[in-house]
Amino acid sequence: MPSKGLPPRVAAGLYIAAGAMFIVGALTSRQIAFSGVGVAFIALGVVMLVRQRKGQD
Q1: Predicted pLDDT of residue 50
Q2: If DSSP states are collapsed to H, E and C, what string results for the chain?
Q3: C-alpha span between 10 and 18 (Å, rounded)
Q4: End-to-end CA distance of the chain, in Å?
Q5: Distance of alpha carbon 56 from alpha carbon 41, whole angstroms
Q6: Helix 35-56 × helix 8-28 angle, to 10°
Q7: Per-10-residue mean pLDDT for the chain, 57 residues long?
Q8: CA-based Rg of the chain, rounded to a whole angstrom?
Q9: Among 35, 41, 43, 49, residue whose Cα is nearest residue 15
C-alpha cells in the first residue's frame, strides 16, 4: 500500500521554510523569544534531511 504522505525532502523543506517565516515574524513583531520556535523548526528540517541522506549511503 503506497504512502499518501509527502516525500521526506519536501516535508523537511516545509519545516525549514516554516521556521524561517517564524523567525521573520518574531523579529518584525519584536517578540524575539518566539524566534526559538523558528530555530526548532529549522533544526527539525535539517535533522530530517540528514537522516534521509544517511539512509541512502
Answers
A1: 93
A2: CCCCCCCHHHHHHHHHHHHHHHHHHHHHCCCHHHHHHHHHHHHHHHHHHHHHHHHHC
A3: 12
A4: 25
A5: 23
A6: 160
A7: 81 96 94 91 95 74
A8: 14
A9: 41
Closest CA to 7 of 42, 49, 55: 49
Cell 513583531: give the residue.
29
- pTM (two decimals): 0.82
Joined together, the cell numbers standing for residue 9 give: 525532502
Could you identify the residue written with the cell 523543506?
Answer: 13
